Amino acid sequence: MLQLTRPLAFFDLETTGLNISNDRIIEISVLKAMPDGSTQSLTQRLNPGIPIPAEVTKIHGITDADVADQPTFREFAPRLMKFMENCDFAGYNSGYFDLPMLAEELLRAGQDFDWSDVRMVDVQTIFHKNEPRDLKAAYRFYCNKDLQGAHSAEVDITATYEVLLGQLERYPELKRDVDFLHRYTIRNNQSVDLAGRIVRDAQGREVFSFGKYKGQAVAEVFARDKGYYQWMMEGDFPAYTKKIITRIRLNAFNAS
């Protein structure tokens, strides 16, 4: 059993597409593993307010008609915030897309969730460090079962939880607490803004991971290129990224 000091929320999203700024969540499933070994789950389809492209429906099977009478994310957000309260997070490759997407939707809904103290366990990273494959193969390898109904958020996230438990049984070097698993699965360049536009370098500085200032400290760039901050604020960057660069800019200004 996982050794938890607070709940660990496994989550998965189905969306209208892969653009964090412009696409929307149409289904979310959260499986919350509790310190006492029990689990709680919350699954909800959502009306995105925009059409679901046909090519995306072919992947997850959710149509406009399926979500027409469902609540919007803004309507659902208070219930979700309550369910996720005081949780760490886990998922299958969720750090690349699901986590930034969830943060973006929460900000759009006026819910400023504090991610600063959140630890994230990426089950895919454990898998790829030991047995590189996809979720179906992971489920077969660790759970000795075939995954039925892949690309349903609830099926995928339940499988992810079972895979992590299987990994803990198979690899004795893995400790069963979230602190260890967070450190084990974290990337070399830790994302500061969830979307990976701002990362920490080996010295712990907050640096750009893209563009002409890639690898350079954000605060230093803003100090010498006065227009770069405004360009980012007016550009097609996630709202959470804009929140982070604003915090960095204000901290540098107050320190000067």
Query: What is the rounded distance between the termini?
Result: 49 Å
Shape: globular
Rg, alpha carbons: 19 Å
Low-confidence runs (pLDDT<50, min 5 residues)?
Answer: none
- Helical residue percent band: 40-55%
- Spatial arrangement of strands, main beta sheet: 3-2-1-4-5
Tell me what you see in this structure.
The chain is α/β, with parallel strands linked by helices. It is built from eleven helices and seven strands. Strand 4, helix 4 and strand 5 (120-122) form a beta-alpha-beta unit. It is globular and about 55 Å long. 34% of the residues are buried. The model has no long low-confidence stretch (mean pLDDT 91).
Secondary structure elements and pairings:
Layout: E1 8-15, E2 25-33, E3 39-45, H1 54-60, H2 64-67, H3 73-84, E4 88-91, H4 98-108, E5 120-122, H5 123-130, H6 135-143, H7 153-170, H8 178-185, E6 198-200, E7 206-208, H9 218-224, H10 226-234, H11 239-255
Parallel strand pairs: 1-4, 4-5
Antiparallel strand pairs: 1-2, 2-3, 6-7
